[in-house]
Amino acid sequence: xxxxxxxxxxxxxxxxxxxxxxxxxxxxxxxxxxxxxxxxxxxxxxxxxxxxxxxxxxxxxxxxxxxxxxxxxxxxxxxxxxxxxxxxxxxxxxxxxxxxxxxxxxxxxxxxxxxxxxxxxxxxxxxxxxxxxxxxxxxxxxxxxxxxxxxxxxxxxxxxxxxxxxxxxxxxxxxxxxxxxxxxxxxxxxxxxxxxxxxxxxxxxxxxxxxxxxxxxxxxxxxxxxxxxxxxxxxxxxxxxxxxxxxxxxxxxxxxxxxxxxxxxxxxxxxxxxxxxxxxxxxxxxxxxxxxxxxxxxxxxxxxxxxxxxxxxxxxxxxxxxxxxxxxxxxxxxxxxxxxxxxxxxxxxxxxxxxxxxxxxxxxxxxxxxxxxxxxxxxxxxxxxxxxx
Length: 389
Prior knowledge:
Blueprint: E1 6-7, E2 15-19, E3 24-26, E4 30-33, E5 37-43, E6 46-51, E7 54-57, H1 64-70, E8 79-81, E9 83-88, E10 92-98, E11 103-106, E12 113-126, H2 129-137, E13 142-144, H3 145-170, H4 182-198, E14 202-213, H5 219-237, H6 241-254, H7 262-275, H8 278-290, H9 292-295, E15 305-306, E16 312-313, H10 327-332, E17 340-341, E18 348-349, E19 365-366, E20 373-374
Parallel strand pairs: 1-4
Antiparallel strand pairs: 2-9, 2-13, 3-8, 4-7, 5-6, 5-9, 10-12, 11-12, 12-14, 15-16, 17-18, 19-20
C-alpha cells in the first residue's frame, strides 16, 4: 500500500469521530486539521500525540512520543504505521431523541393506565477527545449522532421515565397537563445526565423535551378526552353528571307513550326548567319516578270514582286532577238536586253528564215522538201519550 502524502477530513457536522482508513504514514506526511477538529495518533491501541487546528508534518519534532516507539532517525524520512482519528469538537445542537415504544404510566388524577411517548433534542460538544475515543469509540470506524443516541438511550429513557412519573405523582397532575412542566423536566434531566456524559468526555447542553403526549389511537385516551369534553359541556350548561343522567331517563320515559308517568315527568321538568332551576327540577322528577310504582291506580268501579270529565280517582280524592272540580261541593249539593238521575237505571250523575256511568246509556231518556224528557220508570209520554222505547 502506498504511503499517503496528505491526511484531512471534511465530513458532515453530525460525525463526532472518524478514523482515516489508511494507516501507512511517513515522516513527510502532511496532516491538516480544521478549526473545529482535533487529530489524535494511535499506535498499538495507545493514544499518542494530538494535533490541533493547522497543517502538521509528521516529523520527529511533531511526534516525539511516536518517534520513541518506532525509533525514527532524527532528520530523516521513514515510513511507519499508525491510526489517525479526527474528532469533531463543534457544538452540535440537533441531536434528536425519542421513546422507541410508549411508556405505560398511570394517570394519578383519573386513575387510568395511559401510553405516554416523548421526544426532543439536545446539544453536545466533545470536551475531552482522548477520553471520548478511549471510552466510547473503541474500534468503530465512525461515531455519529445516531451512535451517540443509541449508546445513551438506556440512560436517557430511564431518567425520562422516572422524572415524568415523579411529576405526575408528586404534583398530582394529569398526563394531559404534563406539557405545562416541560421546561422544568428538561432542566432536571439535563442535570442528571450531564455527569454521565462528561465522564465520557462529552459536554451536554441545551437538553429539550419538545413534547410529552399520548397516541391518538390509545383507547384509554379517547375515553378520557370524551369524558372531559362532556364534563366541560355540563359545566358550561350548569348541571352535574347525575342530573344529566336523570334528564336522559326523563326524556326516554317521556318518549314512551305507554308510560303513565310521562305526563307527570314532563310537567315536573317543564316547571323546573321554566323557573330556571335544573337541579330542583331533576330532584322533583326523581321523586316522581321513584313513586311511580305506588301511584298507579287500578281502575275499577268498586275502588274508584270517575269525575264528570272522565278522569278516574281514588275514593278519598277531594278534587279532580283533570278539571279541578271539588267532590266535596258535589256531595254537599246532592240533596238540592245538583245531580241528575239516569233515565234508564236511576243512578245519580253529574248535572252535565251525557252518559250514565253505571249503565252507559244516554243520561236523559227522551220521548221518540215529541222529545219530552222522560222520568225514570215512566212508560208513556205525558205530552203525546206515545209509549216510551
